[in-house]
Write a structure and sequence with these properties.
nine-stranded mixed beta sheet; alpha+beta; Rossmann fold; 2 domains; five-stranded mixed beta sheet; BirA Bifunctional Protein, domain 2; 462 residues; 16 helices
Length: 462
């Protein structure tokens, strides 16, 4: 990956402009060309790997009608969504705050037919208002996958394995999956007798691992000391297989809690049997921040990034908010955070042949023809017409190649007797020529030889 991440934050010593004079809205992204190339490559690699698993890409609208999508979104997310008025209908539009709810709405409307299961993937930008002090972006680039219509153990494992193996595919060297079951912690809260509002606040505190806040909520809700301690203990249960036995002790035989632990045990054991035991950690306090999750849930973390790279889980009743219940599971990855995680290590970059083709303005037709041939051969080509001619043409081309930092420069019309031949300059030759260490060496090649050399991966001419 490139060393320049798509940063939105101010660099050290840079003074923040006042909100009134800022040219870019707070929390929104400007990704410059070098980083943009690598971000798009990262997205494409992920989607290509999802496709190998059988997941087809879906492109969803950026705006949704508020009244249509709101059944799939919790009140807090709706409150933090960006809204505008549709000038045609007068209805309220949402700037997309969540993709999973959109997919649920799409499936419920029957737009994808009735055949199940469905395997869908996407790349999308979501928008959520976040207070400035929280340090979260308001524009989020996501890549994700959803498995619709399957409720068996293999479906839970498939979606988690897809996430693990796709992260390995893009070269993320070290990460951990935090695996839990929403039903366990929710069951503890229900058993403790919290009010609906108190339970929601406790879930939010659990999602943030905010022990002091959770303790305050339990006191305010007048939860008994024993139940309160059980809830706080559960939030700290994180580790390997021993976590399951400790969880069963906290469950005290209550059936909903036992059932949640049974499913979690099955998923964990199957993942371990597939060789993922070093990647997966059990967390009985794992509780994602969306209220539609109701089963197995998971987040992914890596060293050096103080927030999850993404996550997901099971949502068997979300589609039912728009129609009938269909068991489903999925995940989303934050592309910006993945990009930063990859930039913490020396990840080998994928190289693509890039050439600059320079020709005189009197050979415009030939210039266009040559660049077209190279592009058809899969080469990235930048073309440039110059007014120079003769010996001046080669020098002008060399200067252009060095200024553009392109490894190979192809010169047309430089006096070669055969018009099917071109002069090829390498970056090393141009560097030495500019420094005066040696005369600029011109190597003449036929177009067929040039294309063959670029196709075989040679980075130009030595």
């Amino acid at each position: 990956m490139a060393s320049a991440p798509p940063t939105r934050r101010l660099s050290s010593g840079e003074r923040a402009p006042s909100r009134e004079h800022s040219l870019v809205p707070v929390g929104m992204a400007t990704i410059l060309p070098e980083a943009a190339r690598h971000v798009r490559q990262l997205e494409s690699e992920l989607l290509a790997y999802f496709y190998r698993y059988g997941y087809d890409e879906i492109i969803l609208p950026t705006f949704e009608y508020f009244d249509v999508l709101s059944p799939g979104l919790e009140p807090a997310l709706l409150e933090n969504s960006y809204k505008i008025v549709d000038r045609t209908t007068g209805r309220i539009l949402l700037l997309r705050p969540d993709v999973t709810a959109q997919i649920a709405r799409t499936v419920a409307m029957g737009m994808l037919g009735t055949r199940l299961p469905l395997r869908l993937s996407y790349r999308a930008t979501v928008f959520r208002y976040e207070p400035e002090h929280v340090g979260r972006d308001r524009e989020l680039f996501q890549v994700g996958a959803e498995l619709i219509g399957a409720d068996d153990l293999s479906a839970d494992c498939e979606i988690i394995m897809l996430m693990i193996e796709s992260l390995r595919q893009i070269g993320l060297p070290s990460f951990k999956i935090s695996l839990g079951h929403v039903g366990f912690f929710k069951g503890l809260l229900v058993g403790a007798g919290l009010s609906a509002e108190g339970q929601k606040l406790a879930e939010q505190a659990a999602a943030r691992k905010d022990f002091p806040w959770l303790g305050e909520i339990l006191v305010r809700e007048r939860v008994g000391k024993r139940s309160a301690q059980t809830i706080l203990d559960a939030l700290e249960l994180c580790g390997k297989a021993e976590v399951l036995s400790k969880g069963r002790a906290l469950a005290r035989g209550e059936q909903p809690l036992v059932q949640a632990l049974d499913r979690l045990t099955q998923v964990y054991e199957l993942l371990c049997s597939m060789g993922f035991q070093d990647v997966v950690l059990l967390d009985l306090g794992e509780f994602r921040g969306f209220d539609y999750y109701d089963g197995i849930v998971f987040d992914v973390f890596t060293d050096g990034i103080g927030i999850e790279l993404g996550g997901g889980g099971r949502y068997d009743h979300l589609i039912g908010r728009f129609g009938r219940d269909i068991p489903s599971t999925g995940f989303a990855l934050n592309v910006d955070r993945l990009f930063r995680g990859l930039n913490l290590v020396d990840t080998p970059r994928t190289t693509t042949s890039v050439v600059l083709v320079v020709g005189p303005v009197t050979m415009t037709k030939e210039l266009v023809s040559v660049t077209r041939q190279l592009r058809q051969a899969g080469v990235r080509v930048i073309q440039r017409a110059v007014t120079a001619s003769g010996q001046d043409l080669v020098g002008a081309a060399a200067d252009a190649g060095l200024d553009a930092e392109i490894p190979t420069t192809v010169v047309m019309g430089a006096g070669q007797p055969n018009r099917e031949h071109v002069v090829v300059l390498s970056r090393r030759q141009m560097d030495e020529g500019r420094a005066g260490r040696s005369p600029l060496h011109k190597k003449t090649m036929s177009m067929s030889d040039l294309i063959a050399s670029l196709r075989t991966g040679r980075k130009g001419v030595s």
